[in-house]
Amino acid sequence: DAGCRSRQWNYWMMSQRGGTLSYQTFSAGFSVALFLLAHLLCDRRGWTLGLLRTLGTNALAGYLLHLVVADAVQRFTPPDAPAWYMWSACGLYLLVAYLLLRGLERAGIFIRL
User: Fold this and answer.
1) 77 dihedral zone (left: phi>0; alpha: psi -120 to 50; beta)
2) Are residues 61 and 102 in contact, defined by beta-carbon separation less than 8 angstroms?
3) Which alpha helices (DSSP H) does 1-113 contain, by range?
4) Tens digit of each residue's pLDDT, the chain (113 residues)
5) Please, what is the Cα angle at 17 between 16 and 23, to 5 degrees?
6) Torsions phi, psi for 80 (to 5 deg)
7) N or C: which end of the chain has fewer CB within 10 A?
């Protein structure tokens, strides 16, 4: 649509690509609000989620393992795969990465700096 391409530039535009001040201010505030919500739920109320605990306790191992797992799963996923195949590959990737990290957690192996 020609109207969107010729829109007049102003200071209130929200553009990630343009890096506008309004976008940066909004995204920083939104991030702080989400962090506050997580702090209230997890630190103050004691709410936990096993998946996030497993990913967070061995984050460095997860970072290293996800590269290997992603490469292995990507070899079996063609670039023109249909959506269901892509989502299945994504689920397989997350499942394998989680199971490897959970195995390390159960064995008491933690990689830390």
Assistant:
1) beta
2) no
3) 2-5, 21-38, 50-57, 59-74, 83-107
4) 555 666 666 666 777 777 788 889 999 999 999 999 999 998 899 888 888 889 888 999 999 999 999 999 999 999 899 999 999 999 999 999 999 999 999 999 998 88
5) 25
6) -105, 30
7) C
pTM over the 0.85 mark? no
Q: Read off the tokens for 88.
A: 């299945």
Which tokens belong to 12?
A: 């209130």
Specify the length of the chain in residues.
113
Of 108, 105, 79, the C-alpha closest to 97 is 105
